[in-house]
Specification:
With 360 residues, this protein is α/β, with parallel strands linked by helices. It is built from twelve helices and twelve strands. Helix 5 links the parallel strand 7 and strand 8. The longest helix has 17 residues. The relative contact order is 0.13.
């Protein structure tokens, strides 16, 4: 039996499962293991506890912050090095086949080039220069990267979509215990509280809606941007209609997805956009910014905002809800079918094919 080829998965971001990178690392590793017969995976992570679920199925290599510096890079050699996230400063000391998953180049899209740190661009370009292939999580990410960076035209650059980990629960989920009235119809949104998520625009939209909805926004809100959102809530006197839920459990997320009237996601910059797909799995009407990768992910049965003043957003929302209700059976079926197309099992198989292609 031929010796298994060894693939290093640089996945130290798995330590933060509340981040998109952490979720990507976890679900890809989980499904690589279940679909693999020919490779030996070594996962570079901060501690064994972050990957204890995979104990006995992968080898563990400890992540040290010092290994960010060239002198302290690992001397070990692998058949392939896969950098799962483009922001990693961990690199191999020796030359070896190298794959990068590039999620986005949002930092180049949203800021004037003169405001971007030169070393940030150079760091990403160095990763690209050593690549044997680059995998993108959306066509938008691929187009933007090729626009802003120097990528050889003959480099293999497949688009491999992320999967959807959410299986919609058919059983009624228990209501979370919160200091907020959950008995009224509500709209749901989730994501990190960053300016580019554009959550504050939802407050003005809510103010202009004639229907009596509440709004629940979940996600890591220990960021300065939270103050912008709170200012809008106070400005429109909507303290009794908007709930900032903070970090929530998986069960709480499923409750909100199962029981919301609609899912809203006005984010201005997304390399992929998993939350809308999670809402689609529940057959919920989905409202998205008509920006970056979101139209690619949302498809034709989602509704889109072209501008973000509260009145026009409210009009799009009201018209969209009317359209959804008139064709509810069709919309729910199509949205659920679209969510199923984003499958981690398929994603892992595509990566395994790519490993084989790189290794010849």
């Amino acid at each position: 039996m031929p010796k298994q080829k060894r693939i290093l998965l640089e996945a130290h971001n798995i330590k933060n499962m509340y981040s998109g990178f952490g979720q990507f690392n976890y679900w890809l590793i989980k499904n690589l293991i279940s679909n693999n017969e020919e490779f030996k995976f070594i996962v570079n992570a901060k501690s064994k506890s972050s990957i204890k679920e995979f104990d006995g199925q992968i080898d563990f290599q400890k992540y040290y912050s010092l290994s960010r510096y060239e002198f302290f890079r690992t001397r070990k050699k692998y058949d392939l090095w896969h950098s799962l996230n483009q922001n990693s400063k961990i690199e191999p000391r020796h030359k070896m086949p190298y794959l990068l998953t590039l999620h986005d180049v949002i930092f180049l899209e949203k800021d004037p080039i003169e405001n971007i740190k030169k070393e940030d661009i150079e760091q990403l370009q160095r990763k690209i220069d050593r690549c044997d292939a680059i995998a993108y999580i959306s066509n938008h990410a691929k187009q933007s990267a090729n626009h802003y960076l120097n990528i050889p035209s003959n480099l293999h650059q497949p688009v491999i979509y992320n999967g959807n980990p959410v299986i919609a629960s058919e059983e009624k989920i228990a209501k979370p215990i919160v200091n907020f009235n959950l008995n009224k119809p509500f709209i749901f949104c989730i994501g990190q509280f960053l300016e580019m998520k554009n959550f504050h625009s939802l407050i003005s939209m809510l103010h202009h809606l004639k229907s009596d909805y509440q709004l629940i926004i979940a996600g890591n809100n220990d960021k300065p941007y939270k103050e912008v959102v709170q200012h809008e809530i106070s400005k429109f006197k909507l303290e009794d209609k908007v709930y900032l839920a903070g970090k929530i459990s998986e069960q709480e997320k499923h409750y909100y997805l199962q029981n919301c009237e609609a899912f809203v996601f006005p984010s201005l910059f997304e390399g992929f956009g998993l939350p809308p797909i999670e809402a689609m799995a529940y057959g919920k009407p989905v409202f998205l910014a008509n920006r970056t990768s979101l139209p690619e992910i949302g498809g034709k049965y989602s509704f889109y905002w072209d501008s973000f003043d509260g009145e026009s957003m409210a009009t799009v929302f009201t018209n969209g809800m009317n359209t959804f209700e008139k064709q509810k059976t069709i919309y729910q079926k199509e949205l659920r079918n679209r969510a199923q197309k984003f499958n981690w099992d398929t994603t892992a198989k595509e990566y395994i094919k790519l490993y084989s292609k790189i290794l010849g």
